[in-house]
Design a protein that fits this description.
The chain is mainly α. Helix content is 58%, strand content 0%.
Length: 100
């Protein structure tokens, strides 16, 4: 079985024996070197998980909202963690009120 030889401007197309077709590869998205995760977002999520008898839940709400503002203004990462901290903080406050 002989391999079909053809000319193509794309090395991937040539390697696969595809003649007359240009194969485009998907571009790779890389985070910017200066892009860091917001520390308050991390703290918000951790405090939302831990609760600390209600104090952690309140701090999770505060840190989460401050983190969301900082992320919006600076373009840092961690928006999902800030949202999780806010949600867990609300659940924690309700949980402490129910148990109290």
């Amino acid at each position: 079985m002989s391999k079909r030889h053809c000319w193509s401007p794309n090395a991937l197309a040539r390697a696969n024996g595809i003649c007359g077709v240009t194969i485009f590869q998907n571009p790779v998205t890389v985070a910017a070197a200066g892009s860091t995760t917001n520390g308050l977002a991390i703290a918000s999520m951790v405090l939302g998980i831990v609760w600390l008898e209600g104090l952690g839940a309140i701090l999770a709400l505060i840190f989460g909202h401050v983190a969301k503002r900082e992320i919006r203004d600076t373009g840092q990462r961690g928006g999902g963690m800030a949202t999780a901290g806010i949600v867990l903080g609300r659940v924690g406050i309700v949980g402490v009120l129910v148990m109290w």
